[in-house]
């Protein structure tokens, strides 16, 4: 592989070796799992910055994510499970097999055709390899329970839509949105806290379906809105400080006016 990649693998091996780092030597697949998830989310967030012309943070976060992969592979090699070479070889083989329109003679002209063929190839591979997998009672079992709620909902509804369980158009989803909003209002008036939570969940689920139908990735959309909220609220904080005011000395009307000013800015 490349010099830099090989050096990173060598550094990790040294950290795990006798006389290396005590903390690194204690780690296991299980203990590192939260860090892998954390670095993936930080990389996800850095992608939003890169989209605005600031790729430096993404480079750093991808490095942190790669480190976690190398870390797991080093532990695997020590246990005799597999090596980083095995990881690279397996994913390279998979990518070639899953892209017959690039590395073979198959003709696929659209992204939709590529995704459909990808799923077919996955099913064929499972049949050939007869992998020792936990039996699945539902097509939804392919969606991990550990996914964040928005991603899980999006994946679940995509699976259902593939077998025809879907709204025909966005207008039908808007009708469902109105229905769920009215049900939520009714539960709020009835002060049914348990049912309020359920109705809010239903409302969010419909929003995810609307996003899917419009080819919008909901996790990314919400992340962008979160970032926008941070920027505008920080503008309010800065303006209040400039005027020598605290939040307690301000009021909603003033903060709302500053919010609108931030939107214009």
Structure write-up:
With 265 residues, the protein is mainly alpha-helical. It folds into 3 domains: 3-139, MazG-like (Helix Hairpins); 140-216, MazG-like (Helix Hairpins, Orthogonal Bundle); 220-264. It is 74% helix and 0% strand. It has helices spanning 3-16, 22-26, 29-50, 56-79, 84-97, 100-103, 111-129, 149-162, 170-190, 193-213, 218-242, 252-264. It is globular and about 65 Å long. The two termini are 48 Å apart.
Explain the layout of strands and helices:
Elements: H1 3-16, H2 22-26, H3 29-50, H4 56-79, H5 84-97, H6 100-103, H7 111-129, H8 149-162, H9 170-190, H10 193-213, H11 218-242, H12 252-264
Helix pairs in contact: 1-4, 3-4, 8-10, 9-10, 11-12
C-alpha end-to-end distance: 48 Å
Kindly estimate the percentage of residues that lie in beta strands according to DSSP: under 5%
CATH superfamily of the largest domain: MazG-like
Name the poorly predicted regions. Answer: none
The CATH architecture term of the largest domain is: Orthogonal Bundle
Query: Approximately how much helix is present in the residues?
Result: over 70%
**CATH class value of the largest domain:** Mainly Alpha
Largest sheet, in brief, is: none
What is the N-to-C order of secondary-structure elements (H for helix, E for strand)?
Answer: HHHHHHHHHHHH
User: How many separate domains?
Assistant: 3
In CATH terms, what is the fold-level topology of the largest domain? Helix Hairpins
How many separate helices? 12
- Molecular shape: globular
């Amino acid at each position: 592989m490349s010099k830099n990649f090989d050096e990173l693998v060598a550094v990790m091996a040294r950290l795990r070796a006798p006389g290396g780092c005590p903390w690194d030597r204690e780690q296991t697949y299980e203990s590192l799992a939260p860090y892998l998830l954390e670095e993936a989310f930080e990389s996800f967030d850095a992608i939003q910055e890169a989209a605005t012309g600031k790729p430096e943070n993404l480079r750093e976060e991808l490095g942190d994510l790669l480190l976690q992969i190398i870390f797991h592979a080093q532990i695997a090699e020590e246990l005799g499970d597999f090596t980083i070479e095995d990881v690279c070889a397996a994913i390279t083989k998979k990518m070639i097999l899953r892209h017959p329109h690039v590395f073979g003679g198959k003709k696929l002209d659209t992204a939709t055709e590529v995704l459909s063929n990808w799923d077919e190839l996955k099913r064929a591979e499972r049949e050939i390899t007869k992998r020792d997998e936990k039996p699945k009672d539902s097509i939804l079992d392919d969606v991990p329970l550990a996914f964040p709620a928005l991603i899980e909902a999006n994946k679940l509804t995509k699976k259902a839509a593939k077998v025809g369980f879907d709204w025909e158009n966005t207008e039908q989803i808007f009708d469902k949105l109105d229905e769920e909003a009215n049900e939520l209002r009714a539960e709020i008036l009835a002060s049914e806290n348990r049912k309020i939570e359920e109705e809010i969940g239903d409302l969010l689920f419909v929003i995810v379906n609307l996003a899917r139908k419009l080819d919008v990735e909901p996790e990314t959309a919400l992340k962008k809105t979160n970032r926008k909220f941070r920027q505008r609220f920080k503008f309010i904080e800065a303006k209040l400080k400039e005027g020598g005011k605290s939040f307690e000395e301000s009021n909603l009307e003033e903060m709302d006016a500053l919010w609108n000013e931030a939107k214009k800015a």
